[in-house]
Amino acid sequence: MNKEVWSLLYNIGAPVWYITFAPADERHPICLYLAGTNKKFSLEVPHRGTRRRLISNNPVACACFFHTIVRAFLKHVLKVESTDETGMWGKTKVYYGTVEKQGRPTLHLHLLLWIENSLTLQEIRDGLLSDGSDFLKKS
Predict the structure, then answer these.
(1) Which of 13, 76, 124, 127 is the residue whose CA sits 20 to 30 A from 42?
(2) Alpha carbons 108 and 26: distance in angstroms, whole number
């Protein structure tokens, strides 16, 4: 992964955003439903101890929940599957993410995000350091 990220940095430049995404599986009704044994979905959230027991006893359900939430984030917030829509931070050019296990052991995502037509770090630096530039007037 290290080589892949360095290749992206070399070919595309520095990412615009670094995002850590950690869905709250222990509190989310969908994850608790997937991890539980109830046939009927309920928005009622069980007691904290019950929630932790459900989550720790069914890591596959938590992984399925995590996958679903991350895919929804990529599709609806970043608009990565769309060719004409703009995501929350602009038109996504490239993204690179890696999944990591936390100590609990729930999953979280680290994501590098490149946005089309965004300023490079050098352009931002030049704009900040030049006296009377349009960049300083606009900010």
Answers:
(1) 76
(2) 13
Nearest to 20 by CA among 106, 120, 93, 90: 106
Closest CA to 78 of 19, 2, 10, 11: 19
Place of tokens 């490149």: 114
Mean per-residue pLDDT pooled into runs of 10, the chain (139 residues): 89 90 75 70 70 77 87 92 86 91 79 89 83 73
Full DSSP string of the chain: -HHHHHHHHHHH-S-SEEEEE---TTT-HHHHHHHS--SS---PPPPHHHHHHHHHH-HHHHHHHHHHHHHHIIIIIS-TT-SS--BTTB-EEEEEEEEEE-SSS-EEEEEEEEETTPPPHHHHHHHHHSTT-HHHHH-
Amino acid at 51: R
Other residues' Cβ atoms within 10 Å of the Cβ of residue 113:
22
Contact 23, 69 (CB under 8 A): yes
